[in-house]
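dumping this here before i forget
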Amino acid sequence: MIFRPRPRFGKKEIARINFNIRVPEVRVISSTGEQLGVMLTKEAIEKAKDEGLDLVEIAPSAKPPVARIMDYGKFKYEKEQKAKLARKRQHIVEVKEIKFRPKISGGDYGTKKRHVERFLKAGSKVKVTIMFRGREMAHPELGRQILDRLSEDVAEYSVVEQTPKQDGRNMVMVLSSTIKPEKVSAEGAHPEEAAVRREEPGKKIEELTDKEEKPEEKKEEAKEKEEETKESQESTDAKKEDA
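structure:
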């Protein structure tokens, strides 16, 4: 059996340096930016060592590859800082979701509308969903009225990206923000969105459902279910009598 030493896994280098450059010759640029021409790789490495620097391959796809004499540690640090700054400046558009019921009360509508406005002001898209239950499916116009009303109420901050569309028991509309965030935090997002991320890390879609419904709404739902049960029972009894 041939013993092979286990490879060591370290941090991935951003460029090949010194003896990791496998090609026989390279086009060399000095530490001052002067073109030194094509040299044997070994000679270029020795020249870099004499200056107390490294030979760094900066254009591996060129023929021959281009290498520069420089301080690799400083070069790597500057590259990492540039990448970090680019990530900070990048604004990621997140999609928030908020759900309504066709029989939503005026107070609940106002609360959820304020949530939608807050998301839009932060530069996020908002997916608005109307949830239908039971006999509500026979009246999709109720959901459409809520979506049309909401789009008009927040027209100052948004445009309708996706018009209301029926999707099974739900009706969905997507609003896109017309406001660009003025300030970007250190996390690369609007301060309000950054706060949301700190509270719920890794969660990209914040859902505001009707779990916190008022007791009155729960009673109405219970009554509707009872009525549906009675109707189905009556229809079953009627069929038995006919038989």
